[in-house]
């Protein structure tokens, strides 16, 4: 299966940071015939591409490509069509080249018992005359997955991908997408009916790769305008992070390695092993070169009040030996986070907690809720301020959290970390 350079970037960083810990083997999952066919078709296409990295040439190859007879039969069983997502090339105005593809609506019962259904998926790509830029749009009205105890449905998906060929033939991609809604339904224990448990509305996401001389920043953004759950809802949630100072040349080198592996005809398990090793080495290279994780904004609004976190995580002169020692690796992490939490939001959360415990048949229920909410909020805020975890500033709790040399501090106050040496005692006055 094709792995994008963006996905490989974040995966490599995560793999490198977790490689210092041993992991238990994951439990075997039920096989998905849908995913097996997707993987098999991707492998055949990647072999046909033969390591070609130029985006326009890749699309020309794909437009002429056809799957093997054995795979065509499997594709028809899953998608109702031997060529479910054909790419059609046509001439456009002013020397442009247009590529269009259409996945027809279908319903399929997977081998693992899940029922999948999707509407028509359309994509359109326009390449400029020089073949140095491709703009792609895609749209999908709806898709549904229904399992025994869980179901998910998305509606009104649209996307835009802009690819530009930079110096040295390196292709950079900026991706943005919008989703009207995503609904999750689950069944109560032992119950047959699926009930709505979570509804997310008006989602927007983006992934941008920004060149900065010999380095690049990979910018991730996600926003949700409404999250409904359990009879309540969060009005807005936002995630904005950056992987900064990544060595530019290391990224296309990794993509070349991925393309080579995917076209080598290896089994799925062997391919996964090689790719995991490549991404792990890439992640280590990023950390050793001085890459940083920057949190531009993580925030959420509840009943009109917004809590937020901003900060960054750096790695201080990481060397190969650090990946062999969890303790030494942790000591190389330097992080700072600024947290803001409105007192009004603390009261709102306390009210929700109290409301669940008060008997609503009591005629004084409303008064009891208000009194208990006031007491719980005062206790919570008082504990945070009095113990030094936060300071009060204009009806807002603020905390500067730092992590350095394996030690956590909240507003300068040291906090013990499990597995790390205890903070040194403050000298006597």
Quick recap:
It contains nine helices and 19 strands. By secondary structure, it is an alpha+beta fold.
Describe this entry's structure for a reader.
- There is one protein chain.
- The chain has 429 residues and is of the alpha+beta class.
- It folds into 2 domains: 5-290, no CATH class; 340-415, no CATH class.
- The chain is 30% helix and 40% strand.
- It has 9 helices and 19 strands.
- The chain has helices at residues 5-18, 33-49, 55-64, 69-79, 250-262, 268-288, 326-331, 343-355, 365-386, and strands spanning 87-91, 97-103, 106-109, 115-118, 121-127, 133-146, 150-165, 171-187, 194-212, 215-229, 232-234, 236-247, 292-302, 305-315, 333-342, 391-392, 396-404, 407-410, 413-415.
- It has a 19-stranded antiparallel sheet that branches.
- A hairpin with a 2-residue loop joins β9 (194-212) and β10.
- α2 (33-49) packs across α4 and α8 packs across α9 (365-386).
- The chain is globular, with a radius of gyration of 26 Å.
């Amino acid at each position: 299966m094709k792995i994008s350079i963006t996905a490989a970037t974040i995966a490599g960083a995560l793999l490198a940071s977790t490689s210092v810990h041993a992991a238990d083997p994951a439990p075997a999952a039920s096989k998905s015939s849908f995913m097996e066919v997707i993987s098999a078709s991707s492998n055949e296409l990647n072999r046909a591409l033969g390591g070609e990295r130029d985006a326009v040439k890749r699309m020309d190859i794909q437009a002429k490509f056809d799957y093997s007879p054995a795979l065509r039969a499997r594709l028809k069983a899953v998608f109702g069509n031997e060529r479910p997502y054909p790419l059609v090339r046509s001439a456009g105005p002013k020397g442009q080249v247009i590529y269009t593809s259409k996945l027809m609506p279908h319903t399929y019962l997977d081998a693992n018992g899940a029922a999948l259904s999707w509407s028509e998926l359309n994509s359109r790509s326009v390449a400029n005359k020089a073949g140095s830029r491709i703009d792609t749009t895609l749209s999908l009205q709806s898709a549904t997955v229904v399992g025994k105890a869980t179901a998910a449905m998305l509606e009104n998906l649209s996307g835009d991908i802009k690819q530009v060929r930079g110096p040295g033939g390196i292709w950079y991609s900026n991706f943005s997408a919008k989703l009207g809604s995503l609904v999750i339904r689950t069944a109560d224990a032992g119950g047959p009916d699926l009930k709505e448990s979570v509804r997310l509305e008006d989602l927007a996401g983006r992934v941008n790769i920004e060149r900065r001389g010999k380095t690049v920043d990979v910018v991730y953004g996600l926003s949700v305008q409404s999250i409904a759950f359990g009879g309540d809802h969060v009005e807005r949630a936002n995630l904005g992070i950056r992987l900064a100072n990544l060595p530019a040349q290391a990224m296309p080198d990794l993509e070349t390695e991925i393309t080579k592996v995917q076209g080598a005809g290896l089994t799925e398990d062997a391919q996964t092993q090689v790719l995991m090793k490549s991404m792990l080495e890439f992640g280590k290279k990023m950390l050793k070169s001085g890459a940083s994780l920057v949190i531009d904004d993580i925030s959420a609004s509840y009943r009109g009040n917004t809590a937020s976190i901003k900060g960054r995580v750096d790695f201080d002169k990481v060397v190969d030996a650090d990946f062999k020692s969890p303790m030494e690796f942790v000591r190389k992490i330097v992080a700072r986070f600024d947290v803001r939490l409105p007192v009004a939001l603390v009261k709102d959360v306390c009210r929700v907690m109290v409301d669940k415990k008060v008997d609503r048949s009591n005629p004084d229920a409303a008064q009891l809720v208000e009194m208990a909410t006031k007491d719980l909020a005062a206790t919570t805020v008082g504990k945070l301020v009095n113990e030094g975890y936060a300071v009060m500033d204009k009806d807002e709790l603020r905390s500067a959290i730092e992590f350095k040399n394996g030690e956590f501090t909240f507003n300068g106050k040291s906090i013990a970390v499990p597995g790390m040496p205890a903070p040194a005692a403050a000298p006597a006055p």
